[in-house]
Each structure stands twice: as structure tokens, then as C-alpha cells.
Amino acid sequence: MLAESSLLLWTVIILLIAYFGVVTWIGKKGRAHSKSMNGFATARGKVSPWLVGASFAASYSSANLFIGVPGLAYEYGTSVLWYTLGCFGVSWVGLLIFAKTFWRYGKKFGRVSTVPEWLGRRYNSKTLQVIVSLLILFNVYYIVGQNVGLATIFETVIGIPYFWGIIIGVAITILYIGLGGAFAQMITDGIQGLFMAVASILIFISFFWTIGGGFNVFGELTNQLNAVDSNLTTFVGVDGPYNSVLAIMAVQFLLFSFVLMPHLLNKILSIETEEELAPFTLSSGIVLFVISTLMVLGGLAARVIFPTLNSPDSAIPMYVIESFPSIIAAIMIVGIISAILSSTDSLYLGVTTSIGNDFYRVLAPVFKKNISQARLESQSVKVAKGSLIVVGLLSLYISLDRPDSLSILIQFSFSAIISGILAPITLGYFWKKATNYGAIAAVITGAGLYVVFTQFNIIENIYLAMFFASFASFIAMAIIGWLTATEKHEELVLKKSG
């Protein structure tokens, strides 16, 4: 551990203090843009599209790609690279397909702040908006995954106890998001995305002295993995979540759909003009390629160097410590910490803005008949910011019970959300019979079946569970849509999409 060297320990501590100081300062700078709900949630037009793109890639990556998936690669070998392939190739294609139409719909609907609001406007249904806002609460488990990743870094590298590592991460994230909202989140994430890209490139370069083999470094890595365990180099995994062709196809389906996660789609809503979509998607693609393809390889290299780690999730921290000069290792550790925070802040922002905008703002007029729009706007922002503390404490409590696999926990949370919203968003683009009743049925069917499949062990593979739950949601929406669509409704849809 770095804690064994006082020089390195204090280097990391000083860098972290400086880093936290900068993000808190950025949070204060963003206070002026976060007084309204739309400003707090999207900061539309206030951040360069290039930086928003880097922020998208950083939010996409998180502790999952920097800690969790490398941990799976350490445990199950090269079959995990199917996940890496999907992260850049399939997910980016999904972004290119969804981004423009989603942005155009958002523009037609007016100042849309969140994905639940987008769906509510698209289907003219406050009920749907509230239901999807409740579904987004599954992201609390995603936040727990980030907490666990951060605490693992602090514990493995610096020697800070797991509990205190969680508290530090939760406290600092709540502070700067509460101050600056989306402006602070996107600026800090954009910067973090660049740091993450540099760290990933350094991981790749290190193979030339940790693995050897010169330009045949990947061949040498394969040989050394095979010497540890021949099951680590199979095309399809012998064990684990990538143990069949069907499971691998389900992974690609999940990653194609992953760009529909609310904390990612909100980045599209922050783009001011259609022309800015091009630099946004290009920036997100470049940064995502570097992050997703290089860091995960470090998990494979760690299996060669440390074949008997107690926790696979500690593979990357241990690899960095042993493979780099001390000061560079300390800088990279801070970079990995920033990677974790880059998704944590997006998730906090997504959950809390949904609580304020899609739950409180929709339901408050039901109980407060004469509330003015100005007062409702002000109270919604206060509820969103206040819920940061509640969500933070809830995630902290759940994080105390460390999960067996950080990656599996994270993927459970976002798979539940995707299973519910995939059909309403995609069919809402082009299908005339996509009705509000069908959308509600799809959300309940998809998310409900996913939870049933996974919690009752009906389908143990989380990727297959999501695939079949999503498929069922499409069927439910199609049936209900055919039964409930009217000519008047179809005319309304055509008017909105025209």
C-alpha cells in the first residue's frame, strides 16, 4: 500500500485536497446557473459541447470500468473483453442513433430537464412521469457501487478504513453538486474524463515493462494468462457472466441500451443547438474509446502479476502501485478516484433532480391548489438539493454491507431502469400507436419482471434477465398500444414528431 511510504501517502493526500478544493470552487462558480430547476438539472448552453462530450464519457465509465470490470477480467479472463468491445463500439453507435431524435423531441417539448419529464411530455402523462421518477431510484444502488469503489481505493491504497472512505466520497460529492448542480457536474466530469483517458493510456504503456514481449505484448499476455489458468483465455467464458454466446449477445444489447440511462441522456438535454450535437458525440466517442478499451486490460495484466488477490476489485489499484514510479502511481490513483466521482455526481444529480422535478413538482399542485409557478419552481429546486443529503445517507447505509462484486451490483441497478424505459423511448420516436397506457405498461412490465427474474433466481445471468424483461416490455407496450390508440392520439403524435 502507499500508506507504507509516508512520502507517497502525503502526495496522495495533498493531491486529493487540491482536487476536492478545485471541484468545490467549480461548484460555487456554478451556483449562479443552478437557481432554476432547468439550470440545476441541465445548465443548458452554459458548457462547451466538447466538454459535455467528455463529461458523458466520464459519467458512462465510473467505478464500473475502472474497478469493477477490470475485477471481472481478473477473475474470468479474456471473455470479459466482450463487455469492453460493447462499451465503445455498440454504446457509441447507440448514442449516434438516439441523440439527435431525443434532442429534437426535447426541443419541441420546450425546456425539458429530465428523462421522466421527456417521457411525460412525449406521452402527455404525469402518471408516467412520476412512475419513471420512482424507477430512477434504482440508481441509489448504482451510487452504492461508486461508494464501494471509492472506499476500496482508499482502503487498498491509502489505508483509510472502508467506512471513512465512503463518508469522504459522499460528503464531497454532495457539497459541490448541491452548490453548482449540472454546471459543476459537467465541468468537473469533463476534466475528470481527460484525466481518466491519460491514466488509461499509461496503463497500456506499462504493459511493455510489466508483461514484456515488445510489439507482441498481447500475445505474451495471452501466453502468461494461459499459464495461470487456461480458462482465462477462452473466446467464451467457462464461468461468470460471459459464459455463452447468448449471454454475450445480451451484453451487447445492454450496452447499446445503456446510453438511455437518465444520467447520460440528461447530457443531451444540456446541448443548446443542434449543430453542437456533432462535437458532443465526437468528443464522447474519442474519450470513451480510450477509457473503455485500455483500463480493462489492466485487470488481465494484474492476474498475471498477482494471481491470488483476495478481492478482484483491488486488481487495478494493486497493478498501479506495483507498475509505476511512486509519484506517477499516486497521481494515477487520484485519477482513478476522480473517475469514480465522475459517475457518482451524475447519478446524484439525476436522482435528486428527478425527485424535485418529476415527483415533487408534479404532485405538489395536487395538495397545494393555489401554489404559484414561481413558488413551485423555487420549492422544487430546494427539494432537489435537500434530497441530496437523504440520498447520500441512504447510499452510505447500504454501502456498509460490501457487495461480492462491484460490477454486478452496478449492472443490476442500471439494468432494472433500462428494462423499464427502453420500449417507451424507442417506440416513442416513430410508432403512431405508442400511447401513454402502453408506455406505463411497458415500464411496469420491464422493470417488474427484471426484479422478479433476478431476485428469485429465475434467470441468474443479469444480462439475459434484462434482455427478456425488455423484450416483454416491448410486447406489453405493443399490445396495449394497439388496444388504446385512437385517431386523435395518432394525429397528436404525428404533430409532435413532424
UniProtKB/TrEMBL annotation:
Q: What coarse category fits the chief subcellular location reported for this protein?
A: membrane
Indicate what this protein is called per its UniProt record.
Answer: Sodium/proline symporter
Q: Name one GO molecular function term.
A: symporter activity
Bilayer topology annotation: Multi-pass membrane protein
Q: List the subcellular locations.
A: Cell membrane
**Species this chain originates from:** Gracilibacillus orientalis
- What GO biological process terms does the UniProt entry carry, in alphabetical order? sodium ion transport
The entry assigns this protein to a family as follows: Belongs to the sodium:solute symporter (SSF) (TC 2.A.21) family.
The alphabetized UniProt keywords are: Cell membrane, Ion transport, Membrane, Sodium, Sodium transport, Symport, Transmembrane, Transmembrane helix, Transport
